Amino acid sequence: MSRPTGLIATKGIELLTWATPNGVKASVLLEELKEAYGLEYTSQAINIGQNIQKEPWFTAINPNGRIPAIVDHDNNGLAVFEGNAILGYLARRYDVDHRFSFAVDDDDYTRAESWIGWQHGGLGPMQGQANHFAVFAKEKIPYGIQRYVGETERLFGVLDARLRDRDYVVGPDRGRYSIADIALLGWANGIERLAISLDQFPGVKAWLARVLDRPAVRRGLNVPAADPPRPTALDEVDEKTKRERAELKKIVDAAKEQYGYKYASP
Fold first, then answer.
1. Is 17 helix (H, G, I), strand (E, B) or coil?
2. How far, in Å, CA of 133 to CA of 127, rounded?
3. 15: helix, coil or strand?
4. What H or E segment, with its residue span, contains residue 16?
5. Separation CA 103–CA 108 (nearest Å)
6. What is the pLDDT of residue 1?
7. How far is 38 from 76, CA to CA, in rounded Å?
8. Where is the region Disordered (predicted)?
9. Chain segment 116-148, per-residue pLDDT in tens
10. Inter-residue contact 87 to 179 (CB < 8 Å)
């Protein structure tokens, strides 16, 4: 695949993304809209490891130099950045039957906003920092590891309590699949890389299985294209990955012990 150097579409939605927990928000919803309404879109792979998102053509679209971003060529070339802003925009403009969202005068619209805001201000930043300190940083700093992995666990405890007697995060009765679930999907799907077992959160695990069972979700998780398809948190991992996670768990457990961390949620 050639390195992107600018926009390539002249009509419809153009998606600029990479397969991160934030990046898949846009691709999953676009796949759902495509299946439900026939909404076509163009996508470009923005390899963040190559810093394509820092190039001037991209920062003209998103000044913050982050993925995902979209350009709506059918709406005067409007650029929208931040995954949750993209969810809101696409839902308002293209989910006309509210299959994945709620009408503005429906109280569930506000409930969905609350959970999406919770993800944006809490779960995403905390889990992102946990990934940095526990997985990516060459120097394993115990305080940072126990602080952010612990807060990630606490937040998943909050989500687990919400899903204890619900199928989806927001909606009447046991809930209805919506952009609130899509906002959380990528983060829940990446929890086990932190050596946090989904078995600790049975409500989250059952909800994740329910969401991953949707064909559009599976397709959206594989934008940009991946062959073979990207594994999910519910797939069996190979022996190498098991060993790496076991070693990471030792590091995390030692950091927690050093600072007296005790799990509590909320």
1. strand
2. 10
3. strand
4. strand 13-17
5. 8
6. 65
7. 21
8. 222-241
9. 999 999 999 999 999 999 999 999 999 999 999
10. yes
Contact predicate 261/150, CB 8 Å? yes
The secondary structure of 22-90 as a DSSP string is THHHHHHHHHHHHHHH---EEEEE--GGGTGGGSHHHHTT-TT--S-EEEETTTTTEEEESHHHHHHHH
Which of 47, 44, 50 shows the shortest CA–CA distance to 30? 44
Residue with tokens 């930043």: 125
Is residue 255 within 8 Å of 153, Cβ to Cβ?
no
Please tell me what DSSP assigns to residue 5.
-
Q: Which amino acid is at 242?
A: K
Could you tell me the end-to-end alpha-carbon distance of the chain, in angstroms, rounded to an integer? Answer: 45
Burial of 24 per CB tally in 10 Å (0-12, 13-18, 19+): buried
* Mean pLDDT, rounded, of the chain: 97
Angle at 35 (CA atoms; ends 162, 215), nearest 5 degrees: 55
Residue 82 has pLDDT above 70, yes or no: yes
3-state secondary structure 186-245: HHHCCHHHHCCCHHHCHHHHHHHHHHHCCHHHHHHHCCCCCCCCCCCCCCCCCHHHHHHH
- What global pTM score does this model have? 0.97
Of 159, 139, 141, the C-alpha closest to 151 is: 159
Full strand arrangement of the beta sheet holding 69-72: 41-45, 13-17, 69-72, 78-81
Q: How many residues does the chain have?
A: 266
